[in-house]
Amino acid sequence: MKKSSLFSILFLVLGGHAIRAQTAGDTLRAYAYRGWQHYKDADYAKAEKFWRQAIQFGKNDTVAYDLAQSILQQNRTNEALENFLKTAKTATNDSIKAKAWHNAGNIYFHKKQYEKALEAYKNALRANPDDEQTRYNYALTKKLLNKQKKQNKNNKNRKNKNQNRNQKNNSTNKNNQKNNRNKNQDKPNQRNQNQNDQNKRNRNKHQEKSKQNQGNQKNKEDKNRDKNHGRNKNNQQNLQNRPNRRQEGEGQKRKSRLSPEEAKRLLQALKNKEEQTLKKVKARPVKGRKVRTDKDW
Q1: What does the domain layout of the chain look like in residue ranges?
Q2: Going by C-beta distance under 8 Å and a sequence separation of 6 or more, which residues neighbour residue 120?
Q3: Of 8, 35, 132, 133, which sits most exposed with the smallest number of CB within 10 A?
Q4: pTM for the whole structure
């Protein structure tokens, strides 16, 4: 009796597990199907809800991939990327694995994370080498990645160039500021030096002018001295020559005096000349003039 009861209990337990196992799989498929219906109607939020309920009843690569798709359709890109990557790494179905890596690559591509996108497309091709769309995306991403690297290099060079220019400008500005400070510090000293030089030039100019005036005064004195000396010499010479002139005058005076005989002869010559003149006058005929008879009143 006891023995038959134990067999009955064991049968019921094992049978219950089989029923529950069959019920879980059916439930997963039922939720998955309802999620798919909402997805086709573009009701992505309800599709997500049912697919999340479906995966509570077991692991399913297709449901996991569909769940990530519903999240992506709601523009929750980062969350969708996490679900695609999780599905790609855990899926045993190569087709689902390839699709998950492909969609992850697309998200990286739109983020312009070309290195990660290239790696995702490469993994997708490993799972499905015949996928032409993935192959095209891989080639395009590789081209853009090379362009991006070149651009980044140029930007880096430009940035370094700008930094060098800024450093040079900063250094130049610092040097200019330092020079200006030094110049401002030296300016009073330079002003004093300039004033001292000007004073020195003025003193030298005054000394030269004084020397020149002294020289002119000396030359003037020498000239006056020479002039006075010459005048004195001429006066002395005139004084020396004056007696001779007096003697010459007296000699001439004495020489101009005539003797009585010479005076008599001179008077006789003058008288004879006068008589000759009178004779000539008397001998010259006199022209007649017509006498005017009419009255002049």
Answers
A1: 15-157
A2: 101, 102, 104, 105, 108
A3: 132
A4: 0.50
